Transposase IS204/IS1001/IS1096/IS1165 DDE domain-containing protein (Actinomycetospora straminea), 133 residues
Amino acid sequence: MTPVRDRTGPSRLLAMVEGRSQQAFQAWLAGRPRAWRDGLEVVAMDGFTGFKTATSHELPEATAVLDPFHVVRVAGDALDRCRRRVQQDLHGHRGRSTDPLYRARRTLHTGLITDRQQQRLTALFGDEDHLQV
């Protein structure tokens, strides 16, 4: 993340660790040189708690954060659950192709939207029934 913070370029992936476990990640971290580990300030990862635990054991001074992809995914999933709940509360059924909230589901998961999509969302949320979403 240093290049992003310093505005010198994109961040880069340091490694892919085989095995999705706390032990595998902790062993990989322990195998890195002490000077390298001491220089780490932030560790970006998905939400797997084993990674967080391994990071706190091996890099106690580093801050563990969710990577941007997973932050957007978690937020999008929460938004979709809310959209489905409001849909059910308003209409008593799952979304159908003619329902405005159902039609907007893909746009709500999109990071960059067009002017036309923005207009559709503005109209959708102009309806007080949809404000909860």
Remarks:
- The chain has a mean pLDDT of 87.
- Residues 104 and 121 are 7 Å apart (CA to CA).
